[in-house]
Amino acid sequence: MGRALGSVRARAAAGATVVVALALVAAGAAVLLVLHSHLQKQAGLQAEVAARDVAGQIATGTPYDKLDLPDGEDRPVVVTGGDGRVLAVGEDVRAVDGKSVGAGEGAGRSAPDRSTDDDDGDDGDDGDGGRGLRPGEIDDDVDLRDGSADVEGKVAGYRFAAVEAKDSRGAQATVRAGSALAPEEDAVASVRDAMLIGLPLLLVVVAGVTWLVTRRALRPVEGIRGEMAAITASTDLSRRVPVPSSRDEIGRLARTTNETLAALELSVERQRRFVADASHELRSPIASLRTQLEVAVAHPELLDVPGAVVDTVRLQRLAADLLLLARLDAGERPADTRVDLAAMVREETSQRVADRVPVQIGELAGGEVAGSRSQLARVLGNLLDNAQRHAAGSVRVAVAREGEDVALRVEDDGPGVPESERERIFERFVRLDDARARDDGGAGLGLAIARDVAVRHGGSLDVRTGSVFELRLPVAG
Questions:
Q1: Potential cystine with 227: which of 233, 241, 335, 383 (Cβ 3.0-4.6 Å)?
Q2: Where are the domains of the chain?
Q3: Which fold has domain 249-329?
Q4: Do the strands 395-402 and 359-364 form a parallel or antiparallel pair, or are they unpaired?
Q5: Dihedrals φ, ψ of 190, to 5°?
Q6: End-to-end alpha-carbon separation of the chain, Å?
Q7: What is the mean predicted confidence (pLDDT) over 265-290?
Q8: Helix-strand-coil percent breakdown of the chain, rounded to 5?
Q9: CA atoms of 16 and 56, how far apart (whole Å)
Q10: Contact yes or no for 122/135 (Cβ under 8 A)
């Protein structure tokens, strides 16, 4: 059991760790994606601001060689004309996306004088892509994309923003400004490294906490197991397992286990009492029959044949009763057939012609019940035998339909059952003092058998008044 508990703890800890690991990996990936997207947008915004600043200078007529360009390492800038010629380039910027742009001195390098070109201010044929920009205007659209730039011989990744503008003479220029992606990559790498370091530590903590919590939660189970092992070893069914104070599944398990032990103890005690009583009841007819046979062997003329027959019949009935009780205790289900109680009463009473007290038939209302006819006939016979045993001179049986039930009542004119004894008489091998005084051969099993059969048919058997026994069964269907 210890191994099983350890296995449960291990599986619980492993399962919790795997679930947390998957959740953390998913959450970490989402955080890195969001962080990367945010930093990339921020870099694009910075690049766009730089590009529009330069485009604004161009639109206001600043000469290309006088442009105030950002620092090349942080914000590399390249200004090209409509024909692709480099008009200005940031300081120390040598190449963009692998294409050489040259290195200007100072703020930048200007294009050759184009005052003779397009001096008419034509704004429609300078390669503006049909945007219709007029001189001094800046395009509202921006083209964002990742690329690389060589600044002072160092190639790095940048987020570039391209903005188109027209100078005061109507010449088109494209400003491409970049924002370094190194800070973004460093930030993402730092977060990733922190996750890689913290994730294993967090998983270790989760596994340890789950192990301890599971161990604490299963501790009552080990207590229950230990007590059950002790009960099995000692066969002492009066012992009970410890019940934890918590009202959870383990607490319910402990309470159910104790209820099972109580039922088992009651069943074993009942079985022991049953065996003892059966042995006692069997001893008398067997001893009497043996005595008569021994006398018959020594003195054949003294053989009491009628007495031997009575003892044999008594022994046969007792054996049949014990067999039926054993079958009922084993949980034998009654046959699922329909039985008309009124018809059964007529048939069974018509065969009782030699009874000490004749049976009177009262009202017999129709009503079918589901069950075993032989067992229900046994109930009727036991009730009639009991009534005739105590009756002064009258026994009456009736069947009534009451709602969804059929009630069979047997009544006699005897002294009745004292109220304090009305439940006790249904116990096995119980006979009241007056019945014992008569010594009519009964073993005290008839009413016990009758109630067991009634209960297994879904009904009940009770003493309604001092001398009225009522069998109540549900209507079939």
A1: 241
A2: 1-234, 249-329, 337-474
A3: Helix Hairpins (1.10.287)
A4: parallel
A5: -65, -45
A6: 49
A7: 79
A8: 50, 20, 30
A9: 59
A10: no
Residues 6+ apart with CB under 8 A from 29: none
CA 62 – CA 180 distance, rounded (Å) = 26
**422 pLDDT above the threshold of 50:** yes
Q: What are phi and psi of 165, to 5 degrees?
A: -150, 165
Q: What is the pTM of this model?
A: 0.50
Residue 472: band (very low, low, confident or very high) from pLDDT cuts 50, 70, 90: very high
Structure token digits, residue 49: 């601001």
Other beta carbons less than 10 A from residue 452's beta carbon? 21
Query: What CATH number belongs to 337-474?
Result: 3.30.565.10
Q: Look-up: residue for tokens 């503006």? A: 128
Cβ-contact 172, 164 below 8 angstroms: yes
Nearest to 107, CA basis, from 80, 94, 88: 88
DSSP 354: S
3-state secondary structure of 438: helix
Q: pLDDT higher for 257 or 7?
A: 257
Task: Say how far apart CA 289 and CA 441 lie, in whole Å.
Answer: 14
Higher pLDDT, 403 or 434: 403
Helices 182-234 and 2-59: angle between axes, nearest 10 degrees: 170
